[in-house]
Specification:
By secondary structure, the protein is an alpha/beta fold. The chain has helices at 15-26, 45-55, 104-118, 141-154, 156-160, 176-185, 210-221, and strands spanning 6-10, 30-37, 60-65, 123-125, 166-168. Helix 1 packs across helix 6 (176-185).
Length: 230
Amino acid sequence: MSKDKKAVVLLSGGLDSATCLAIAKSEHYEVHTLSFRYGQRHSYELDRASNLSREFGAASHRIVDIDLSQFGGSALTDPELEVPKHDDVQGIGETIPITYVPARNTVFLSLSLAFAETISATDIFIGVNALDYSGYPDCRLEYIKAFEAMANLATKAGVEGDGSMRIHTPLIQLTKAQIISKGLALDVDYGVTLSCYDPEEGGVPCRRCDACLLREKGFADNGVLDPSLC
């Protein structure tokens, strides 16, 4: 693969997106990272995204402002809704939780598609996962395939045949433990990532939300300590 092959990488600053960024770099893409300030209560993650972009030598990093808190409907964007907390991972339910942000990945992917077209990139990486996750409908493979098909109908590159738009989901069929194992092999410093939905002052993880519990289990399954807690 050519060294100047460009890719847009959606980067939240969390564990999954950091691993996704490392994978894109390992495949010799010129990466352009894209993060979103969307009214999330865990906006500390954006500092982590900036650090990760620098650490991995991203060609550019943009933080796009879109205020999804105007709509509410999610504990991540509505301060009146509480983020669910549990004592252990067994407490995580099987229904779509209140931390689901309506249409979030559709909005993010649409904007990443617009950005990709402006820099002549046909590859977009997103760290969605359909195994150890909170049950979000926009993290499933069928959704990604549908969006990719739409992207190739809605872009100049797709219509003119200059190259098909591809949505890469390298983590979608991996457990959290497998994601962490892959990231460690690619020298991801997980100590600079933040996964927590409801961090305390300074970005200290709560260790009881779904994201924290799934992350903790992933590190435990690898027999290593989460460096962000050391």
